[in-house]
Amino acid sequence: MRTFMTALLAGVAMAFAGQAGAQETLVFATTNPEQHPLNQGFLIPWAEKVNADSGGAVTIELRHGPTIANHTNFYDRVIDDVVQIGWGLTVQNPGKFGPTLVATLPFVVDTAEQGSVAVCRMSEKGAFQPALGDIVPLLWVEFPQASLHMNGSPATKLEDIAGKKIITTTPASAAIVAAYGGAPLSLGIAEMYEGLQRGTADGTIINFTAFPGFRLNEVTTNHYVTPLGGAAGVVFMAKEKWDSLSPEAQAVLMKHSGCEASRAFGKFVDEWEAGAMKAVESGGNHTVTQATAEDVAAVREKMLPAIEAGFAERAPGGAELIKMFKEELAAAKSN
Predict the structure, then answer these.
(1) Do domains 23-145+230-272 and 147-229+288-334 have the same CATH topology?
(2) Which CATH architecture has domain 147-229+288-334?
(3) pLDDT at 149
(4) I need a surface site. Which of 61, 226, 259, 329 has the fewest CB within 10 A?
């Protein structure tokens, strides 16, 4: 009898061990403080939905702040399995994500929702391969078109850039600054506040979503709203780690991923951008000037051909990527 009970207990223990082994904990590094609008408005609720639907097959464990992963090393941290889910802007690692920089083109994207769907569909159709062959994108998002922001100097037209030092984050915005007589500066998002505060830079080209999290309203005064290019962001896993997940874990992650989930991500970013711009306008000591349709058309005619030619030259298959991006933008706008 004792032998039978010992065997039975051993079998039960093995069964529980098998169930425990089927559960997977994935550390998701958001890179921003927990209270950041991106976390509170989208990434935390997204992770909570996955956890609620997973039935124990997978648990996403959120880690906030730049300690475990930051805006520049997020890809390496995922590939090295320090974290299992990463988030970042692809412009921060152009060597890895070069083909996705098609999403930084100015004058072609109307909304973040539209751009998010377009980039996601390009990804699903293999447009970014083989460059992204070692990752599995879960969510894509297109950040809104950047505007010009100055600290103590006028910003009512692009000609106001002349003679000024302007922080840029994309080749397209750097080309625009140079064409209008300014000096492009390369500073990361986390360095912008100090650069503007100390006078290292006179202004920056970035969208309004950056303002709440990095307090850029404190170091800017004048704003010229015109479409100077966006940027793609991605939530992703290493393909090796993805392949090791159970079918149940993969299924629940994919239920909350893909192009419709990316559409929702883009819609959230559009609302965030509008709210952030309104907060700046109503905050006092800020002047916001909206570019006219005629102004935008003139700058587009002057700058877009050269910017597209530069991307086509730098990126393998760049001309085809531009063509596909515009096609997917048109499709996303209608559906």
Answers:
(1) yes
(2) 3-Layer(aba) Sandwich (3.40)
(3) 98
(4) 61
pLDDT, position 12 = 39
φ/ψ of 230, rounded to 5, equals -105, -155
Q: How far is 92 from 89, CA to CA, in rounded Å?
A: 6
One-letter amino acid for residue 160 of the chain: D
Q: CB neighbours of 72 closer than 8 A, spacing ≥ 6?
A: 92, 93, 188
- Give the H/E segment covering residue 70: none
| CATH C-level class of 23-145+230-272 | alpha beta
Domain boundaries of the chain, sorted by first residue: 23-145+230-272, 147-229+288-334
Q: Using an 8 Å Cβ cutoff, are 47 and 62 in contact?
A: yes
For the chain, the 3-state helix, strand and coil shares in percent, each to the nearest 5, are 55, 15, 30
> Tens digits of per-residue pLDDT, 260-313?
999 999 999 999 999 999 999 998 899 999 999 999 999 999 999 999 999 999
Residue 168: partners with Cβ closer than 8 Å, 6 or more residues away = 174, 177, 184, 185, 186, 204, 205
Query: 3-state class of 34 per DSSP?
Result: coil
pTM over 0.85: yes
DSSP assignment letter at 307 = H
